[in-house]
Specification:
The chain is α/β, with parallel strands linked by helices. Helices cover about 50% and strands about 10% of the residues. The strands form two sheets. Strands 1, 2, 3, 6, 7 and 8 form a six-stranded parallel beta sheet that branches. The N and C termini lie far apart (about 70 Å). The structure holds zinc ion.
């Protein structure tokens, strides 16, 4: 009998602890269901960005998956890689994704003279313009290295990132997803590369996971020009 009483006491204590923990952690979630539809603030916006494409196989595969999920992304294209892959770039533009430049030859801009750096950016832009009919407004500097004062020569906005997926290094879907999902927050710009199968699969899993947490995927202009 004595033993039974002891067990009952522990059981009651256990349920009390659960009740206290529940009150604390779930209060926000409960508010959402009480007030019905989610407001804008409850749909934190984030942006997926893909560098170094287009790739003849994986970019197409990525576009298929994004279309299926009705998600928009931003692509920073290497001008030289557009050669021979014009159709996939046209599709990208037609389906509403944002296209920016990643220079023509993937050069480190701060290692070049000002005129050479400017030439690289403009050549990359021209290739995008020839292919899509749209002049890009955004540039992602390769290696994240922007050249000081380049802002005065080109009318494009450099775009960096807050979350580095390290997809090029990991090349493992599960590890990429884990790395991105663990500390993503509102307004983040996620860096990925659509030149690896593992990155494309990781992007789909990141979308599916974060949409369950009410995240909304937007193109970078929506985050930067607000
Ligand atoms: Zn790059």
């Amino acid at each position: 009998m004595k033993q039974k009483k002891g067990l009952a006491g522990i059981t009651i204590l256990f349920f009390m602890l659960i009740a206290v923990a529940g009150l604390d952690g779930d209060s926000e979630k409960k508010d959402q269901s009480v007030f019905g539809a989610l407001s804008d603030e409850e749909h934190p916006k984030i942006a997926l960005t893909f560098d170094d494409g287009p790739h003849p196989i994986y970019t197409e595969e990525l576009l298929d998956g994004l279309k299926k999920r009705k998600v928009m992304a931003t692509f920073f294209l290497i001008g030289n890689n557009i050669e021979g892959n014009e159709e996939v770039v046209k599709r990208m533009a037609e389906e509403g994704h944002l296209i920016g430049s990643h220079t023509y030859n993937h050069v480190q801009l701060n290692k070049l003279s000002e005129s050479k750096a400017k030439e690289e950016i403009l050549k990359g832009c021209n290739k995008i313009y020839e292919t899509t009919g749209v002049c890009p407004s955004f540039v992602r500097p390769p290696f994240g290295e922007w050249k000081k004062n380049l802002d005065f020569c080109v009318t494009m906005l450099p775009v960096f990132w807050n979350v580095d997926s390290l997809d090029w290094k990991l090349q493992n879907t599960e590890k990429i997803v884990k790395r991105v999902v663990k500390d993503v927050k509102e307004g983040d710009i996620i860096l990925m590369h659509d030149i690896f199968e593992t990155s494309v699969q990781a992007a789909f899993q990141i979308i599916d996971t974060l949409e369950k947490e009410n995240y909304e995927f937007v193109t970078v202009d929506e985050l930067l020009l607000e």
